[in-house]
Amino acid sequence: MAKGSSISGFPEWLPSERVVEQRVIDTLRTIFELNGFIGIETRAVEQGSSLLKKGETSKEIYLLSRLQDVGNENDTPVEERLGLHFDLTVPLSRYVVEHSGDLAFPFKRWQIQKVWRGERPQEGRFREFVQADIDVIGNGELPDHYEVELPLVMVQALEELRQYGLPKATVHANNRKLSEGFYRGLGLTDIEGVLREIDKLDKIGGEEVARLLEETCGATADQANACLELANLTADNGADLTDKFNALCEIHHIAFDSDAYLLAREGLDTLAMIVDEAARLRPGSVIADLKIARGLDYYTGSVYETFLEGADSLGSICSGGRYDNLASQGSKKYPGVGLSIGLSRLVSYMLHTAGAVASRVSPAAVMVAVWDENMRPACNRIAQALRGRGIAADVAPTAAKLGKQIKYASKLGIPYVWFPADATEDGSDSDEVKNIVTGEQVAADVQSWEPDTLYAQQTVTIQ
Amino acid sequence: MAKGSSISGFPEWLPSERVVEQRVIDTLRTIFELNGFIGIETRAVEQGSSLLKKGETSKEIYLLSRLQDVGNENDTPVEERLGLHFDLTVPLSRYVVEHSGDLAFPFKRWQIQKVWRGERPQEGRFREFVQADIDVIGNGELPDHYEVELPLVMVQALEELRQYGLPKATVHANNRKLSEGFYRGLGLTDIEGVLREIDKLDKIGGEEVARLLEETCGATADQANACLELANLTADNGADLTDKFNALCEIHHIAFDSDAYLLAREGLDTLAMIVDEAARLRPGSVIADLKIARGLDYYTGSVYETFLEGADSLGSICSGGRYDNLASQGSKKYPGVGLSIGLSRLVSYMLHTAGAVASRVSPAAVMVAVWDENMRPACNRIAQALRGRGIAADVAPTAAKLGKQIKYASKLGIPYVWFPADATEDGSDSDEVKNIVTGEQVAADVQSWEPDTLYAQQTVTIQ
Q: Ranges for the Aminoacyl-transfer RNA synthetases class-II family profile domain (chains A, B) (predicted)?
């Protein structure tokens, strides 16, 4: 991120870095829209009551107060104050309920916006960052085929980013029902507690998780061990997944006709469907990985995390799941499934690890040189003619020495400098244009000249 | 804006309305980049000290507090708290100073982002809205040709929006030095006060402004009258402007060799240059209008407001000016000139008055029908093939009756429904595609079929 950014946790890109972020956003939007997702933007603020809704989140929140109310903030209960959204899923749920009469269901939407987390500054984590989300929300019910289609759209989007240096992404899927059924089958009851501890596996390791399961979730050593065995289970096809899971149930005496197994089986069948259908559509893109837990989030079925090859330390760059209880109105429910890319972190990785660079800072392909300030109107007309033909053009800021003008173009990465007829060094009576990268200079007509394909557009490449 | 938006002042668009907003944003970005402006995004928050800097603004501000700090907010002085930015100019000034070593000057940037104003809710004004800004910032100095080029870029952008129903826009320009010189020539000293009252002219009328000038700025009836005469002066060319202004000075005994006149003359010459050069490049786009004051803002020279033909009640939709003292570092100054479009208000006008409508809600051109859930993998492959050829495609959510599937496509505005071979009603062995707007149905090959140009893309038209 930009050097010297003055508030910790609030990243800000330099212009050349912003080119990469903008390219990532444009790419994601293109893929989302190709797949029929509808773009929306929600307001940045929600009611405190909505942000604090029990069981939905453990996120830290920024509350707002008007400058005029400073000193009297506490006259208003937190629930009635406004706060900045910490994700795009809670706002979506509210939006869908609020506008249900105006939407067609299932409602497939994409949304790329900033979110804020009121973390302590010293933790060095982003407190403002961009998320890129896709979700589909049903009215009353939601077919489970979306639970495989949505991660595949994200895989397609991440594949598209590989040209800018992103490594191959693999979605790791699990299902809350599968985990819950298995834990209940073992005789455990603090399901949320177990999920919370299992979620720490990558960070603190199996031994420590086992200790925590015993200490905080009332597990015996055997139960804790069984939880770890489940977490270690992975499979890339449904049959293998089912065999391995059933074997684990047999070892731990979970009967196939128990309520616990039947609950697990529901999740198992969905997960098996997901990996099999994903293998058909995009082989190697999705695996079953039973350690995926998603902490204390609002998910009720499928859960996903996405990892980049060779970038384990980055953690999951695209996470989500199915949530059946987040949005409701009276007895009507709006179940949803969605995934969210942590875009700022991804861009940071692309810039600083994958070596993505903008071909130039300025969108302009041409800078028109100005020999004399009296010529500026003529120079403006040349630039205007180029722009009219879709060629982005700038005009030199001052009629400085030509070398200084070329240096300005060069600093902005503008590849062509245009010399109006009476400004060419040899006094030529035709306009000329010089590619300052290759040094090539040719006579040019403003009505027909085209930049070489290689230099026409701002692009992003890998260093 | 979306019906029933639940927090007053925080507009939120329905999906079909968002299509129009997105189109406006895309159009502005295209024009800004064609003109060589560099896109940046700044963080949404600034230090309180930066937002409250004396003399910069009278804007209302939202301050942030972490949920964990609720009750202890007042332990931190406002200057050290974080607040949401109320415009994009103050953040730009801070960004430029912070990153000056990494930027090429003059730095031309575009920025389209949300801003927040902590207004009282009952006023019914937007408290969150999108601004679209262009500015150019110099390092130490900034040539005045930018003072005509920047408003012209905005005119070009607004011209481009006329295809979506926007009326013709005219920039009204003035110059602070011209006004100040004239007021001083009259013997007035409370220049800020006079500008503040003159700024109210359109809202409260000349009589009331004259009364306020006498009451609050110590003006005599004659002085107040002279201020109104100046405010009534308009001109569409430099010679006419100069003649009219000089005549007014003679009437009010402002000597052409006085310091006051020389100050006014500086502004007059810049303003004359602006209207003349604008007339050459885009006739009829910019006039001199000496009532433009821009209230208590940070401008030091040129000021601009932009009005739409037949939409006077909307007020200025694009305002700005030159500011020489906003950004500085030690003795080094970064003078700038820029304009800002109040995008949310503009989109609101386009939707509700100009009749701009999205051709469809969904970006998809095609929905693949699903005859039977077992066929879904085949349907997904059809959609994938179309997407691979750049045709946005959706797949029916369920294998419901065909009528229900077509109704879903129709509600989303998706023009084509694709019938996979064994799903066509007549049992045809070739795929068929139906345009559900025209009723036309033809055999189609997923590798070669193209939608009619009219139906290929989501567009915005005027109702």
A: 20-363
A88 among annotated binding-site residues: yes
CB contact under 8 A, B71 and A68: no
Whether A407 contacts chain B with CB within 8 A: no
Neighbours of B312 (CB within 10 A): 9
Q: Which B positions 279-298 lie with beta carbon below 8 A of chain A?
A: 280-281
In one letter, which amino acid is B150? L
Please tell me the class of the A169-308 domain. alpha beta
The CATH code that applies to domain B366-462 is 3.40.50.800
Q: What homologous superfamily does CATH list for A1-163+318-358?
A: Bira Bifunctional Protein; Domain 2 (3.30.930.10)
Confidence at residue A56, expressed as pLDDT on a 0 to 100 scale = 46
Class of domain B1-168+309-358: alpha beta
State the Rg of chain A over Cα: 28
Q: Establish whether A294 is an annotated binding residue.
A: yes
ipTM: 0.95
List CB contacts (< 8 A) between A399 and chain B.
none
Using CB atoms, pick whichever of B67, B106, B394 lies closest to residue A118.
Answer: B67
Do the beta carbons of residue A168 and residue A308 sit within 8 Å? yes
Contact list, A384 vs chain B (CB under 8 Å): 281
Q: In degrees rounded to 5, what are phi and psi of residue A58?
A: -120, 20
Return the number of other C-beta atoms located less than 10 Å from residue A461's C-beta: 12
pLDDT digits over A394-431, tens only? 999 999 999 999 999 999 999 999 999 975 555 567 99
Q: Which of B22, B65, B397 sits opposite A106 (nearest CB)?
A: B397
Q: Domain map of chain B by residue range?
A: 1-168+309-358, 176-282, 366-462
- pLDDT tens-place string over residues B203-217: 899 999 999 999 999
Fold match, A1-163+318-358 / A366-462:
no
- Asked if residues B171 and B358 have their Cβ atoms less than 8 Å apart, the reply is no
Q: Where are the alpha helices (DSSP H) in B107-200?
A: 146-160, 176-186, 191-198
Return the closest-CA partner of residue A210 out of A228, A187, A193.
A228
Q: Which residues of A touch B63 (CB under 8 A)?
A: 64-67, 70
